[in-house]
Amino acid sequence: MTTATVLVASDLDRTLIYSSAALALGMPDAQAPRLLCVEVHESKPLSYLTESAAELLEQLAADTYFVPTTTRTRKQYQRIRLPIPTPQYAICANGGHLLVDGATDHDWHASVLRRLDAECAPLDEIRARFTDTTDPSWVRKHRVAEDLFAYLVVERELMPEEWLEEFTSWAGERGWTVSLQGRKIYAVPKPLTKSAAMREVARRTGATLTLAAGDSLLDADLLQAADCAWRPGHGELADADWTAPHLDALTHRGVAAGEEILRRFGTTARTHLASLPGLLSDAADALPDPA
Q1: Nearest-CA neighbor of 218 among 231, 203, 202?
Q2: Are 94 and 68 in contact (CB under 8 A)?
Q3: Sequence-ordered alpha helix ranges (H) in the chain
Q4: How far is CA 91 from the centre of its chain?
Q5: Which residues of 32-46 are buried (b: 16+ CB within 10 A; e: fewer)?
Q6: Which of 214, 195, 98, 87 is closest to 146 using CA atoms?
Q7: Which pTM was predicted?
Q8: What's the first-to-final CA gap in the chain, in angstroms?
Q9: Which of 45, 63, 122 minimizes the C-alpha distance to 266?
Q10: How far apart are CA 168 and CA 160, in angstroms?
Q11: What per-residue string of b and e applies to 184-222 under the rule 16 or more CB within 10 Å gives b?
Q12: Any idea what the Cα angle at residue 197 is, between residues 143 and 228, rounded to 5°?
């Protein structure tokens, strides 16, 4: 097990890994990067990162506490096959589940449920509002994730813009956050955060530096809580020009942004490790140089 004191908490979808539709390969085909498939769903390849990104991730995971941090359910997360050993910690369901060596930490989950019961409207109320105010002409699926939050799969071009504004306001008054990501509209309790889970992992590991990256509104609290943070040039946060004093807003888009984020993680971790005299010098030297 690594003795590094750097914790890297990174969102996955459209931050480190990308579907075919999100790759944003704007170069000629002959110049496109080689891709590594890291997720198969229903016997079809689904998510990718570049081979260069895979190499950066392997080294980063060897020398830091790399913590996948996702809104995905545990089942959805477990489909992903990153080119690294099973991380000691992973954050799923937007912080609702903390995995330790791949297994659910039930005490953490119980503490999350107590907070949700105390601070926001129940999930059933949100689901009822989804059902009562939407139309099958533009909603394709209603889904509940881990009995913690709900989301819709929609046809965005058919969805009334005023509906999203009205629902966001209504849910906000009841302690819920609404996020539009691609064709999905998430409704998530405000106390259900990636940042709370990241802080818990930092406490357990004794991390002295926390790094984070993400692209969506549901990542904002994670980026705010980290010591250093990055967002790609696409996604909800980029569209809103969201920023913070310690945030680096990258111009890279698509799968190239995932590679650049991993490069920035490695550079920053190496600099931090090198600042610890006599401690982890070998690990610091092993981290890759930026391209």
Answers
A1: 231
A2: no
A3: 51-63, 74-77, 106-119, 123-133, 161-172, 194-205, 220-225, 236-239, 255-274, 281-286
A4: 9
A5: ebebbebbeeeeeeb
A6: 98
A7: 0.90
A8: 28
A9: 63
A10: 13
A11: ebbbbbebbbbbbbbbbbbeebebebbbbbbbbbbbbbb
A12: 110
Nearest in space to 127 (alpha carbons), one of 171, 181, 62, 76 = 171
Point out which residues pair with 99 in neighbouring strands.
Answer: 90, 104
The tokens for 159 are 């969805």
Asked if pLDDT for residue 283 goes beyond 80, the answer is: no
Dist CA 276 CA 218 (whole Å): 33
Report pLDDT digits (tens) over 26-72.
Answer: 999 999 999 999 999 999 999 999 999 999 999 999 999 999 999 99
Q: Which helix (H) or strand (E) holds 37?
A: strand 35-41
Half-sphere exposure of 56 (CA within 13 A, CB side): 25
- Spatial separation of the C-alpha atoms in residues 58 and 229, rounded to whole Å: 20
Residue written as tokens 């119980």? 110
Nearest-angstrom CA–CA distance, 58 and 261 = 14
pLDDT for residue 3: 53
- Residues 88 and 202 sit within 8 Å (Cβ to Cβ): no
Q: How far apart are CA 104 and CA 88, in angstroms?
A: 12
For residue 141, the cross-strand partners are 153
Amino acid, single-letter form, for residue 98: L
Q: Can you tell me which residue has the tokens 């790759």?
A: 23
